[in-house]
Design the sequence.
C-alpha cells in the first residue's frame, strides 16, 4: 500500500507540474501579444542565445557531420553502398541530427543560463522588485527570451545543418577520396524542401521549449544556492527530455506519410 | 491610509500571520518590529500584493488595493534587489527606460542619486561594483525616483556598519518628512525605530501584539516590548530556531 501511495503521489505531482507548466506557457503566449514589448531585452536575448551560441553549435555540428560520414562509409561498405555517404549525411543532419544536437546544445547552454539567472533574481528579490516597479516579470523576462529563442533557433539549426554537411564533406573528400563536385551535387539534389522546412520548424519548437523551461524553473526556484542549483539542473534535464520527445512527434508529423 | 484587517497568511503550511490588524494613516511613518520569523516581511509583501493573503482585507484609502497601487509606491528591499544586468542609472530610472521619457531618464537618476548622497560618477557603474551601503542608497534612490506617496523599507540597515546605518536612517527620516509620504518600515534595529518611527507596531505570534506612538513605546511596560527593546534573551519572546 505504501508503494502504491508513493506511486500515486508521484503521478499527481507530475500532473500538477505539467498543469503549472501549461498555465505558464499560456500566460507567456498571452503576454507575447500584449503590450508593452521590451525591445532592448529582446535584442539582448537574441545576441545571447543566437550569436554567442554559434561556436558551440558550429563545433558540435562539424564533428558530428564528420563522424557521420565515417560511420555511413564503414556501414555502407558492408554491402557496397559507400556512394550514399553524401545523401545520408545530408538527410541525417538536416532531418534529425542538426535540429536535435543544436536543441540539446541550446538546452545545455541557454536553458541552464536562463534558469540560473532568473533563479538568482528570484532569490535576491529582483523579481519582487520588478513587480513593485509596475513591471510584469513575464513580459520583461520570459517573453523576450522565449521569442528570441524561437526566432533565432531556426537560424542556428540552419547553420548547424550546413556546418554538419560541411564536416561530412571534409571527411569524405579528404579521408575517403570522394569527388568534391559530385559530393556537393549529390547533397543538393537529394535534399527536399520538406527536409529543410522540418529542420527549421523543429528548431523553432526546440528554441521555444529551451527558453520556456529555463524561465519556468528559474521563476519557480526555491531559496538559497541549493534552490538555484536545483532549478538549473531540473531545467536542463526537463528541456532535454522535452526536446527529444518533441522531436519524435515532429518527425512523426512531417514524415510518417 | 493603509488598512489591514484580519490578515491571515500561511507559508509552506505553517501559519505566519494569524489575524493582523493595522492602520497606517496618511503621512505617518509606521515601523513594524518583531523577532525573526514573526512575519514582518510576509506582512509587507501582502500589503504590496506580492503575496496573496489567505484571509482578510487590505484597503488603500478605503478601497481594495488595485494594480495601480504599484504606481504610487516605492520600495527599498533588504538586499537592495538591484538589477545586476543594468547600470546604476537604469536601476534608478527603471520606469523611464522605455518610450519618450527615456531621454530624461539619466538626468533624473543622477538627481535622485545626489538626493541620497551619491555622486554622478556612480551612475554608470554596475551594482556588483558598489559596496553594500552604496547599494542601499541606490535602492533608496530607486524607491523615491517617481516621487511616490507611499514608501516601504524592508530592513533598511541590515548588514551595514553603524555609521552607514545611521546615515541611511537619517536619509529615510528626511525623505519621509520632506515628502509627507506614508511610510512602512520593518526592522530589528531599535536605532532605526528611534529615528524613523512616528508609530510602532510589534508583531508577535502572527498578530500585532502592541502598537502605539514612539513616545508610548518608551514608557510602555509591556514585557514583550521591553524584552525586544532591551535585546534580552530572557522574557516571553522565545527565539525561533
Sequence:
Amino acid at each position: 500500500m505504501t508503494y502504491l501511495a508513493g506511486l500515486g503521489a508521484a503521478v499527481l505531482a507530475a500532473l500538477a507540474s505539467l498543469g503549472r507548466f501549461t498555465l505558464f506557457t499560456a500566460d507567456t503566449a498571452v503576454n507575447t501579444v500584449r503590450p508593452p514589448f521590451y525591445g532592448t531585452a529582446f535584442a539582448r536575448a537574441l545576441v545571447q542565445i543566437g550569436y554567442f551560441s554559434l561556436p558551440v553549435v558550429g563545433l558540435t555540428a562539424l564533428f558530428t557531420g564528420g563522424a557521420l560520414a565515417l560511420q555511413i562509409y564503414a556501414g555502407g561498405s558492408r554491402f557496397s553502398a559507400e556512394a550514399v555517404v553524401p545523401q545520408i549525411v545530408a538527410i541525417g543532419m538536416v532531418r534529425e541530427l542538426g535540429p536535435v544536437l543544436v536543441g540539446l546544445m541550446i538546452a545545455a547552454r541557454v536553458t541552464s543560463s536562463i534558469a540560473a539567472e532568473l533563479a538568482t533574481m528570484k532569490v535576491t528579490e529582483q523579481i519582487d522588485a520588478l513587480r513593485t516597479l509596475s513591471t510584469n516579470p513575464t513580459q520583461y523576462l520570459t517573453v523576450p527570451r522565449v521569442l528570441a529563442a524561437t526566432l533565432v533557433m531556426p537560424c542556428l539549426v540552419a547553420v548547424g545543418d550546413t556546418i554538419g554537411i560541411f564536416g561530412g564533406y571534409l571527411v569524405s573528400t579528404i579521408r575517403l577520396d570522394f569527388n568534391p563536385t559530385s559530393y556537393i551535387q549529390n547533397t543538393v539534389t537529394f535534399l527536399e524542401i520538406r527536409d529543410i522546412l522540418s529542420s527549421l520548424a523543429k528548431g523553432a519548437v526546440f528554441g521555444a521549449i529551451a527558453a520556456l523551461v529555463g524561465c519556468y524553473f528559474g521563476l519557480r526556484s526555491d531559496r538559497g544556492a541549493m534552490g538555484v542549483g536545483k532549478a538549473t539542473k531540473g531545467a536542463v534535464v526537463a528541456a532535454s527530455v522535452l526536446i527529444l520527445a518533441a522531436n519524435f512527434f515532429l518527425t512523426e508529423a512531417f514524415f510518417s506519410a | 491610509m493603509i488598512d489591514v484587517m484580519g490578515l491571515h497568511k500561511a507559508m509552506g503550511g505553517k501559519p505566519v500571520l494569524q489575524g493582523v490588524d493595522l492602520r497606517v494613516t496618511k503621512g505617518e511613518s509606521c515601523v513594524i518590529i518583531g523577532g525573526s520569523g514573526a512575519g514582518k516581511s510576509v506582512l509587507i509583501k501582502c500589503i504590496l500584493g506580492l503575496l496573496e493573503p489567505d484571509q482578510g482585507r487590505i484597503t488603500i484609502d478605503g478601497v481594495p488595493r488595485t494594480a495601480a497601487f504599484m504606481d504610487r509606491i516605492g520600495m527599498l528591499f533588504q538586499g537592495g534587489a538591484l538589477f545586476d544586468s543594468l547600470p546604476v542609472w537604469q536601476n534608478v530610472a527603471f520606469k523611464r527606460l522605455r518610450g519618450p521619457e527615456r531621454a530624461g531618464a539619466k538626468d533624473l537618476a543622477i538627481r535622485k542619486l545626489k538626493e541620497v548622497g551619491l555622486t554622478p560618477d556612480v551612475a554608470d557603474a554596475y551594482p556588483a561594483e558598489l559596496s553594500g551601503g552604496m547599494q542601499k542608497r541606490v535602492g533608496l534612490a530607486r524607491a523615491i525616483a517617481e516621487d511616490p506617496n507611499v514608501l516601504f523599507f524592508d530592513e533598511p540597515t541590515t548588514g551595514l556598519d553603524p555609521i552607514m546605518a545611521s546615515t541611511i536612517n537619517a536619509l529615510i527620516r528626511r525623505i519621509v518628512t520632506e515628502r509627507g509620504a506614508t511610510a512602512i518600515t520593518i526592522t530589528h534595529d531599535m536605532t532605526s525605530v528611534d529615528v524613523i518611527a512616528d508609530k510602532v507596531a510589534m508583531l508577535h505570534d502572527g498578530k500585532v501584539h502592541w502598537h502605539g506612538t514612539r513616545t508610548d513605546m518608551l514608557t510602555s511596560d509591556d514585557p514583550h516590548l521591553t524584552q525586544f527593546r532591551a535585546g534580552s534573551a530572557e522574557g516571553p519572546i522565545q527565539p525561533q530556531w
Helices of chain B lie at 40-48, 88-92, 105-115, 132-144, 162-179, 190-196, 214-219, 223-230.
